[in-house]
Specification:
This protein has one domain. By secondary structure, it is mostly helical. The protein is 71% helix and 0% strand. The protein starts with a helix and ends with a helix. It is globular and about 55 Å long.
């Protein structure tokens, strides 16, 4: 089963085990950079969810150490660092949206896909400000919702507030899940590929549901 996630994703550096094996403690800096990019620079095909979960798991199993202090201190430091990276990424994405403006909604390129933006706009209009929290847990929406907020010129202070809440919840839930599950079941460390594939499957469920919903609505209209 080893390397299964890498095989499916096709890119070695999207596998947390590969990153840890090759970069050791630099894994943290690389992961922070990836989270920042995924949350703000319009690259949705990045393993944000899996990196956060794996980070918590690596801390709990002592495969990764940030300080000489207790693991719970490292957990707190990690959550704060990743929350900051996610929030700053959001701010960049928002400012890009404000700078580009409404014409971006008519653009259909390799990175900024019109279909993804249209679905994110629908999601944003349906959920309002809370989309910045809920959207954190939905692939693609997580990347584009900040751009849409910028294009719609959402109030900056309001955007910062909801983005901070969303970042803290997203990072806190996934890192803590990895940490406490790893503490309760140390053998998970040797089965990370299977766990992460399960996490990937769960994370795409909202996307699959929305696709099914649109197909059903189109069939009945």
């Amino acid at each position: 089963m080893a390397g299964l996630q890498t095989l499916l994703l096709g890119i070695p550096w999207m596998d947390p085990n590969w990153l840890l094996d090759h970069f050791h403690t630099e894994f943290v800096w690389i992961s922070l950079f990836i989270i920042f990019i995924e949350c703000g620079l319009l690259f949705p095909f990045l393993p944000g969810d899996t990196l956060l979960f794996a980070f918590g798991l690596f801390l709990s199993t002592d495969q990764l150490n940030l300080t000489t202090g207790p693991n719970l201190l490292e957990l707190a430091i990690g959550i704060l660092a990743f929350t900051t990276a996610a929030f700053l990424g959001n701010v960049v994405g928002y400012e890009i949206g404000r700078a580009i403006g409404h014409p971006v909604r008519r653009h259909d390129g390799r990175v900024i896909k019109k279909a993804y933006i249209d679905r994110t706009v629908e999601f944003f209009e349906k959920h309002g400000s809370s989309a910045l929290v809920i959207g954190r847990f939905v692939p693609f929406v997580r990347t584009y919702v900040t751009l849409v907020a910028g294009v719609s010129e959402m109030n900056r202070v309001k955007f910062w507030l909801w983005s901070a809440v969303g970042a803290a919840l997203w990072v806190g839930v996934l890192v803590s899940a990895g940490f406490f599950l790893g503490s309760a079941f140390p053998s998970l460390g040797s089965k990370l590929d299977v766990v992460i594939l399960g996490l990937l499957a769960v994370s795409v469920l909202p996307v699959a549901y929305e696709w099914w919903k649109h197909r059903r609505e189109a069939a009945t209209s």
